[in-house]
Design brief:
There is one protein chain. The chain has 511 residues and is mainly alpha-helical. The protein folds into 2 domains: 271 residues, no CATH class; 196 residues, no CATH class. It is globular, with a radius of gyration of 22 Å. The two termini are 30 Å apart.
Length: 511
């Protein structure tokens, strides 16, 4: 085989690697279940580190605008299953791989031994996440959703306990409901359009006859409900605070990317299939997304203000962050989508770091744990307090870090939007409420000391703080490289709003 042919094949085969690697790693970890913890940890961390490298390679390969397509079994689209890597997919893969690497590093300090098959489930979770970001088929998006949800059920229950069991039950029931709606939507679209390839759906939705538009629009709204549930959009967010707050710290950190899967689904489907060129099905959720996102942001900030435990407060900040993210997407413009894509890694890294930090603080408060009540002076309060201060700045969106830049980009994108007063008022008010909530939490945790701690552990070690420092460092890096990151986000937004490139790449000349 000639060198030019090999060079042409390599990028396409690279698309499948982020899906296959965690699957093979999960199988190997299952077979190695009787080995000592150290070999399993090494295998899991090696797989996660390799996924970071693969995501970077795909990011470089797609940065110029190229769209890489891998046809499974060499069956051409739309008859076969395809994996597609564009700027958006590579961006999501990189964020996921980085969060997973540092969450797994934290878990490998001992939390992974609290239950069976932690490392297997962790890799299968990544298999589902990576597959969801890369698949070009709507039914396989459902399949990968189910894989990552099944793995997340096991991870949520890792370590056991009544609180996790109760939260896990709610999590399972509501997500099974979402899966059922997803199947209804997929069946309806296949019944009237005869395809589930997303590029082919874009073509056939635009050409759908008037008698089929009702079914197509109904299916599109069902998909909106499914993605809104996954993203924890109002009023479908009630499952999230208890689930995230009760999970082990490493699992909660990994779950910081879970809501972004729903946001990804909304962005992918409603720019590609139901975008501006979708004929009678165009603009299907334009009237719904922005108001619901703003309401989610407001209620998330209020929930954080009312929280009595630090982990619950961080979980409500995740709800607020999805409101901020979908507010940017709901503006519907290239600048709005770009603002959301810049804000997405920021909020993922910041939330993951905050969950790990909340656990480090709770371990040093004895029986008070993470309750937001006045307590004795924390062991190692100076270092933990400094980390809390940085995390608070990031979460509240204060200058000069990436949270502020993301919200500023969103407000700037809303300048010409009719809903500017609502966007400006709610985003700024939510930021104020977040500052008040975090100032109260910081005061109770670090400045209102009352005596000695009963049952507290030793000061935090560098190994415990390293993943937190790394995740906060990624937010700082996103701030320092705001120019290149925002330019990449804008190029990604432009690519999403011109879906003919995606359709042509998948379907070839016939698209």
């Amino acid at each position: 085989m000639s060198a030019p042919l090999l060079s042409g094949l390599a990028p396409a085969h690279l698309v499948a690697a982020p899906v296959l690697l965690p699957l093979f790693a999960g199988v190997l970890l299952l077979l190695a279940g009787r080995l000592e913890p150290l070999p399993r940890r090494i295998l899991g961390l090696s797989s996660s580190l390799a996924q970071v490298a693969l995501a970077l390679a795909l990011l470089v390969a797609t940065a110029s605008g190229d769209i890489l397509v891998y046809a499974l079994g060499d069956w051409p689209a739309p008859f076969g299953i395809v994996l597609v890597a564009d700027r958006l997919a590579a961006w999501m893969l990189l964020v996921t791989a980085l969060v997973a690497l540092f969450a797994l590093f934290h878990a490998s300090r001992g939390d992974d031994l609290e239950g069976r098959h932690f490392h297997v489930l962790f890799q299968l979770q990544l298999f589902g996440l990576n597959g969801a970001f890369l698949t070009g088929d709507l039914f396989n998006l459902f399949v990968f959703f189910e894989i990552l949800l099944l793995a997340s059920y096991g991870l949520l229950l890792h370590g056991g306990g009544p609180e996790r069991t109760r939260a896990g039950l709610h999590f399972v029931v509501i997500n099974l409901t979402g899966s059922t709606l997803f199947l209804f939507a997929v069946g309806a679209l296949y019944g009237v359009l005869g395809t589930l390839n997303m590029a082919d759906l874009a073509v056939k939705t635009a050409a759908a006859p008037a008698e089929n538009l009702g079914v197509v629009r109904a299916a599109g709204l069902l998909l909106f409900a499914v993605f809104a549930l996954k993203a924890a959009l109002l009023p479908l967010y009630l499952w999230l605070p208890a689930a995230y707050a009760s999970a082990s710290p490493a699992v909660a950190a990994l779950f910081a990317i879970m809501t972004k899967v729903g946001a990804y689904g909304l962005l992918r489907v409603y720019t590609l299939i139901f975008g501006a060129g979708a004929g009678g099905a165009a603009g299907l959720i334009d009237a719904w997304l922005l108001p619901l996102a703003l309401a989610t942001l407001a209620l998330g900030a209020l929930g954080a203000l009312a929280s009595r435990q630090l982990r619950h407060q961080v979980a409500y900040f995740v709800v607020a962050s999805i409101g901020s993210l979908l507010t940017a997407f709901g503006l519907g413009s290239a600048s709005g989508i770009a603002a959301g894509l810049y804000y997405l890694p920021h909020t993922t890294f910041a939330a993951a770091a905050f969950f790990l930090l909340a656990e480090a603080i709770a371990r040093r408060r004895g029986t008070l744990a993470d309750r937001l009540d006045p307590g004795p002076e924390l062991i190692g309060s100076a270092g933990l307090g400094a980390l809390f201060f940085v995390a608070a700045i990031l979460v509240a969106g204060l200058p000069p870090l990436s949270g502020f830049l993301g919200k500023f980009m969103t407000l700037r994108a809303a300048v010409d939007h009719p809903a500017l007063p609502w966007v400006m008022g709610i985003v700024l008010s939510a930021g104020l409420l977040s500052m008040v909530a975090l100032a109260r939490s910081g005061s109770l945790l670090f400045f209102r000391a009352q005596g000695r701690i009963e049952g507290a552990t030793a000061p935090a070690t560098l190994a415990e703080l390293a993943p937190i420092l790394a995740l906060l460092g990624l937010c700082v890096t996103l701030t320092l490289w705001a120019g290149p990151a925002s330019e990449f986000a804008r190029a990604t937004a432009d690519q999403l709003l011109a879906p003919h490139g995606y359709v042509h790449a998948v379907l070839g000349q016939g698209g």
